[in-house]
Amino acid sequence: MSDKKTIFVTGIGTGIGKTIVSAVLVEKLKADYWKPVQSGDLADSDSIKVKQLVSNKRSHFFPETYQLTQPFSPHKSAALDGITIEATKFVLPNTENDLIIEGAGGLMVPLNDDFLIIDLIKQLNAEVVLVSRNYLGSINHTLLSIFALKQRQIPVRGIIFNGNNDAYSEDYILKSTNIELLGRLPEFDKPDPGNIIEAGKYIRL
């Protein structure tokens, strides 16, 4: 039986650092990468950003299932583009390599009227790496995210804290959820392939 990993990188909200974490994991595992839905900024998409940060020659970058032109929640962006996102269109790329999948926003982001990011994770049968960031309210957002994942019986590989440390917040989250700490990433002023490789040394996966 194959022991390849299928990991879905999701966050406790938008702007948490999923793309940086995805790049670190892709580089560390020499994994493939897939962003199912890109909303807006197609000329500088998350797929493009990750590809620019990854320097190994093994990783393959699969095209998005949906490229939406407007920088809004996917269901709104799709409506403005005159399309409806269909759950059945999301099919795991065919690869023998580990696969890192990057989500859009947080778990409860709608893709259409009755299909959320968390539903997509369940459909793809992926294991979650949750990205958290310390700010006022992040404990609440992190605990709610973990609760939602457990409620759907979605396996959570662990949590990565991105940015400035806050021992009070992080210790509370880890003790109250029993979620494994995979590591912490520093705040990058300008990420580049070199510090992406270096950051991977501090992530356990």
Summarize the entry for a quick read.
This protein is of the alpha/beta class and about 200 residues long. It has helices at about 20-30, 45-55, 75-80, 115-125, 140-150, 165-175, 195-200, and strands at about 5-10, 30-35, 35-40, 60, 65-70, 100-105, 110, 115, 125-130, 155-160, 180-185. The chain has one domain (about 5-200): Rossmann fold (3-Layer(aba) Sandwich).
Task: Report what the structure shows.
The protein is of the alpha/beta class. It has a single domain, classed as Rossmann fold, CATH 3.40.50.300. Helices cover 33% and strands 23% of the residues. It contains seven helices and eleven strands. The strands form three sheets. It has a seven-stranded parallel sheet, sandwiched between helices. The chain has a two-stranded parallel sheet with strand order 3-5. Helix 5 packs parallel to helix 6. The chain starts with 5 loop residues before the first strand and ends in a 5-residue tail after the last helix.
